[in-house]
Structure formats: C-alpha cells, structure tokens
Amino acid sequence: MVAPMEVDGPCGWDFVDWVGPDASACIFRSLDDPADIVRAAAVSRSWRRFVVGNEFSKSLCLRICPEIANFTSAEEVNRSPQPQPIARAAESSHGVELKARERDYRIYSYLSGALASTKPSMDCILQCIGASSTDNFPEESIENTLMPNDRVKNRASYWSSGGQDDPDAPESLTYRLNSDICIIDEIRLQPFKAYFQNGYPIYSSKAVRFRMGHSKLPHGSESFVTVEDENLMAIADDNYVWSYTSPEFPMLQENVLQSFKLPRPVLCIGGVVKVELLGRVQKQEADDRYYICVCHAQVRGRSLSPVFMVDTSDPAGYSVLKYLPEAKILRAEDAMLDDGRESLEWHSLVARYRRMRHLAIMNVLLGPVELMDEDDLGGVSDEDPFV
C-alpha cells in the first residue's frame, strides 16, 4: 500500500500531489541512484514523509542486493547511553511507527550509498577456516593459498586436495573475511602448475561455484587450520547459513590468476565464503589419481564495517543489521580508549571490531595468525579509524 502525500499548507500543492501517490511511487521506485532519493526527501516536509513512509531507500537496497531480505530488522546503535524517556501517556501506535520509519530511512539511505559506492575493491580474506581435504598436511595446506606467489623461499606454495579416482569428486575451500558484512563482486583463483613433475601438469578444477553466509557455531568454537583434519567439523554445510549461491563458472586449465566476476555485487552477511571446486581434469602420474591444486585465492570487495555490523545469533538463520552512525567520525585515539561513558552495545561492537582490525594488521605484518576465536575476527579498510 502506498503512503499518501500530505500537503504542508494551503498552497502546498506540488507535482506529486497532481500526479497522485500511486504514479509518484512508481516514479520514485525507478530511481537507481541513492542520492536522488535523499534529494527528493529534502524538497519539503511532505516529500520527506512520502519518501520515508514508502521505504524507497530500503527498496533500492533490496534491488541492489537481495540479500538485504535476510535482515529481520535494522537497529541504530548510539555511542552514549540513551536517557530513559520521561513518564508520559502511552505513545500511539502511529507515532511509534513513524519513528521506526524515520530510523529505517536513516539506516537504509546510508546503506544504499555504501552499496553503490565506487570505491576500489580489495582482497577481503582474513583467514582460512578449512579445506575439504588435503594431500600432505601441513606442507600443502589451504594456508598456502593466502600467499601471493606459487613459490615461497624457493619452495612450492599451494593447496592440494586428496587424490580421487572419480573425476567428478568436488572439493571446497572455506575462508573468513575481514568483516562480518562485505560487498563482494569478484573471486580470483589460480590453479597450481606442478613445475617439479613431468609435463608440468596444471591441477585445475572443471568449474567453480561460491557460497556466502555465516556460521551457526557458537562464538569461540570455530577453530582454524591447525590440525591434520583440516577443521572438517567447522566446514560442514550444516554449520552454516548460506544467503547467496553463485552460478557455476568454468575454470581454465591455466596457471594464471583467473577472475570470476559475480553477476551482481553480493552482500556477504556473516563474513564466510566457501569456494566449491567442481570436477577434476588432471591425474597425477605417480598414483594415477585426480587432484585439484590452488596456489592463490582472493575474494575481492569492500568492508562496510565499522559503520555497519551484523548480529547473526538468531537460531533460524536470520540477521539483525546494526548501524553505528557515530563510527563515521570516530577518531583513532577514541577508538583505542575504553570509555566507561559508552553504551554497552556500542562498546561491545567497537571492541569486537577493534580486535578484528588488529588481527588483520598482524596478518599483514607477520603472516596469517592461527588459533583465533571467531570474536577476534573482522573488517579492515584503508579509511578505517581503528588504527
């Protein structure tokens, strides 16, 4: 149902009034630039009520990234504790709804701008969660796919699956991203060329597919690649909620970094990406079995944290979007202080994000860090104040 236009005064008739609410709503919903919707809301009070009441910004977010539908609600988290309201007569349901619509407009108008941003993509992988199999652990571990080259200190650097007689047997590599909420547009993979074997075989897969979502495991129980079983419990599909599954892409049997552009930008809610390697093309001469080997992987996109965070604790698999507007202007020294005047939820989210950023910085300086709990993960960006 379209919310009607309200005039501001006796001379308040304007274009929207003459066109009518239904036709006006069709026009507004055709806008694909978030800034145009914000400009329309600034024309007059009546236009703002029309824009806010019909949730045009949220509709635009859903058109850009349908994964937004996985959010059961959106909440605004303020830095300072909110004062308790003065006792008064119960507020009407209409007034409560108007406040909720205004809050949602603030959140989704900013989110739509973030989704449509033209900022350059970067590699968002923070850590490996696990591989479906490994031939020789730890020499051929998934951790090697985080290295930019296929040789490190004159030694081959790659992940290798276990051998299979069936050429259709799949494999998978699961990664944790640098934020719980990222916009992803491309995945890059490089098959490994075994330069130390006869004929220099390239162990690519036939095709690839990608899943994105979040873990259902309790915080702290999602361990990482440190033992020979390659964390098989943590990578089981039953432990994840996948909010997006890509189409299949053919992979070339070439030792180059191959780009797989997604049909549209995808909102990864929960910060987990699973790379599915479908089918095998190369046998190893030594044992006449099929293998898949990858020497490098990238998940390209942008983190939306710390302004946006996600609560994925709902057992049904739904998520709550958290909007921290004051994180946009947070100074570096503020980020490092433990300020007792902050609200508990703000402090919890900022502390979690600060640990995420520190882990990302340590990975850059020292290489991938092992044995970190899920609470110690998260986003990093070039403009992040949490340095």
Task: Write up this protein.
With 387 residues, this protein is of the alpha+beta class. The chain has helices at residues 15-19, 21-29, 34-41, 45-53, 56-64, 93-115, 232-235, 332-336, 344-366, and strands at 71-76, 122-123, 125-131, 151-152, 155-156, 159-160, 171-177, 181-191, 205-215, 240-245, 249-250, 258-269, 272-280, 282-284, 289-291, 293-303, 308-311, 319-323. Helix content is 25%, strand content 27%. Strands 3, 7, 9, 10, 11 and 13 form a 6-stranded antiparallel β-sheet that branches. Strands 2, 6, 8, 12 and 16 form a 5-stranded antiparallel β-sheet that branches.
Descriptive tags:
387 residues; alpha+beta; six-stranded antiparallel sheet; five-stranded antiparallel sheet; 18 strands; elongated; F-box-like_dom_sf; At4g00755-like; F-box domain-containing protein; F-box_dom
